[in-house]
Design goal:
Helix content: 55-70%
GO biological process, one term: response to stress
CATH architecture of one domain: Orthogonal Bundle
Pfam family, one: MarR
InterPro entries: HTH_MarR-typ, MarR/SlyA-like, WH-like_DNA-bd_sf, WH_DNA-bd_sf
CATH topology of one domain: Arc Repressor Mutant, subunit A
Distance between the termini: 33 Å
Protein name: Transcriptional regulator, MarR family
GO molecular function: DNA binding; DNA-binding transcription factor activity
Radius of gyration: 21 Å
CATH class of one domain: Mainly Alpha
Structural class: mainly alpha
Length: 182
């Protein structure tokens, strides 16, 4: 069964010669479900990101510039080092990226009043406007897809994704796994 068939049927195929569902093989812990959920989340995320990149083509921003602006919108003013850490990029790469955003009028560098050595990157109105528009259009795309669900299904999906997100955050913020498979 190909990926298209998997998507059409909503099933999760096994590779030729691979063991049947781990539950069928007597393994517990929801591994088969986790495998399928992980696959779907990864692919939904990739498709949503691809839609966002299509929308970005109508703007002067590159995907990394968009991501930087998103972080600034969500987290507030950040230093180059803080933004670099959030984006998993080298400081030099983010410095160049911020230079281009600053030339475009989307951000500005601001020295901290408490320590003039500290420079923060501030999102300007032009940056906020372009981020809001791309996100609004991406959300409109998602809303169109969710209209294919019943209101109850859409709400259940929202609730379950919020719960999964909360559980993952709880684990991440505690610095230790909530569940370990030893």
């Amino acid at each position: 069964m190909g990926v298209d068939e998997r998507n059409a049927r909503g099933g999760f195929p096994r590779k030729e010669g691979e063991r049947a569902d781990r539950r069928e093989a007597g393994e517990g812990g929801g591994w088969a479900i986790a495998e399928e959920v992980e696959w779907h989340l990864r692919h939904v995320s990739a498709l949503l990101k691809q839609k966002g990149r299509e929308l970005l083509q109508e703007t002067p921003l590159t995907p990394p510039q968009f991501i930087a602006l998103q972080w600034l919108k969500e987290a507030g003013n950040l230093t180059i080092g803080e933004l670099s850490a959030k984006m998993y990029l080298a400081n030099s790469t983010v410095t160049d990226l911020v230079d281009r955003l600053e030339r475009g009028g989307y951000v500005r560098r601001v020295r901290a009043s408490h320590d003039r050595r500290v420079v923060r990157v501030e999102l300007l109105e032009a940056g906020r406007t372009i981020i809001d528009e791309v996100i609004r259009r991406r959300q409109a795309y998602l809303a169109g897809l969710l209209r294919r669900f019943s209101p109850e299904e859409a709400e259940q999906l929202r609730r379950l994704l919020a719960r999964l997100h909360a559980e993952m955050l709880r684990e991440f913020e505690s610095g230790r796994p909530v569940h370990r498979d030893d």
